[in-house]
Amino acid sequence: MSTTPGRVFLSRIVGQAVFDPAGDQVGKLRDVVVAVRSAKQRPRVLGIVVEVLGRRRVFLPITRVTSVNSGQIITTGVLNVRRFEQRRTETLAIHELFDRTVTLPDGTSATVYDLAMEQDSRRDWHISDIAVQAGGKRFGRRGAQQVLEWDEVKGLGGEEAGQGATHLLATMDEMRPADLANALRDLNPKRRMEVVAELDDERLADVLEEMPEKDQVEILGVLDPDRAADVLEEMNPDDAADLLGELSPQGAEHLLGLMQPEDAEDVRRLLKYEERTAGGMMTTEPVVLPPDATLAEALARLREPEIIPALAAMIYVCRSPLETPTGRFLGVVHFQALLREPPSTLVGAIMDNDIDWPRPDASLEHVANLLAAYNLVALPVVDENAHLLGAVTIDDVLDHLLPEGWREQDDAAQTESEVVTHG
Known about the structure:
By secondary structure, this protein is of the alpha+beta class. It has 16 helices and 19 strands. Among the domains are: 7-158, PRC-barrel domain (SH3 type barrels); 288-400, CBS-domain. The protein has helices at residues 10-13, 93-97, 166-170, 177-185, 189-198, 201-208, 213-222, 225-234, 237-244, 249-258, 261-271, 278-281, 295-302, 335-340, 364-373, 394-401, and strands at 7-9, 17-19, 25-35, 44-51, 57-61, 65-68, 73-75, 78-80, 91-92, 101-103, 109-119, 125-134, 145-149, 288-289, 314-318, 329-334, 378-382, 388-393, 418-420. Strands 2, 3, 4, 5, 6, 7 and 9 form a 7-stranded mixed beta sheet that branches. Strands 1, 10, 11, 12 and 13 form a 5-stranded antiparallel beta sheet that branches. The chain has a 3-stranded mixed beta sheet with strand order 14-15-16. The longest helix is centred in the middle third of the chain and has 11 residues, at 261-271. The relative contact order is 0.10. Keywords: CBS domain, Cell projection, Cilium, Flagellum.
């Protein structure tokens, strides 16, 4: 599939940077807004959805776009930063038309995997072509791909029950979980759940952790209970505990009963603590090593991709058992210390333990003060017998210090209705 002069396939530009005339990036293209009028008339392109700083999505009329290609999108330099709200007559070409089932001229079915827009002699943009694939996930073996004109296919008007999301998700592969969570918030409930249905459990768990609590509860509530339990197992135990804490006691207990016993046990321990305490904020899965482990072994553990940066900033040194609650907690080794000594050095030789670490009932304010006073991004939580129970990371503290509903708020710095860049 090639892009001819004047024709641009949407899969080539989604996620591309949007620049002002001076070459400064103002955001990324996330979708193309079109008006679908009839099966015969090519949809007119109304504008593009641009994700600007703070993950706010705004609308930019196509008349303010001076150049569109697979490398960059150039604007006139004027950007209205009011949050985009889709009108009833508007269609999001990528989020709503990708994966749509259509009927081909020969009467067979196919799936839309791309769309092309083209500029006419009057410099107006329209959706001109549809790239489809016969067969596919819902029709058995994948068939041939072909590009047809808009009026050659049927089935793009109205909504489709049970629409897939495979090709839409392909455009989101590189998105961070927080950005994908933001994208799901902007979809209508039907389309959101179609996307959720095709996300694998690990990816969905990462996305749920970045969503407001009410959205988490809504999505978890429509999942099959067995799948909901699988997703909870993939979440960090502290995030899973926070989510289950929003459910009724009966609903939470039902899902805990479906989880693997060891995963459920970690979550149950966290549910015992008040939310705004060290115990309520901690994760039960810090990086724990015995004192006779070498720095080389410690660095190898920290390289594991599933360990978040805040947890990778510190090694927690304990006696056996090494699963929380551990044996006696001996101290911590900061990541920088691992880089300063020979790889054969034992972690027990360079650990620090000169801070009065918090107990699980320590307040949010006390934990925040410790992080600030000692310039830390994580710290251990220990019990009265010096057993390591878990670790609190800076992201969890900020989550509780920021105003309620902060994930749903736009970037506070963007308070003007229009931003005029260089141009």
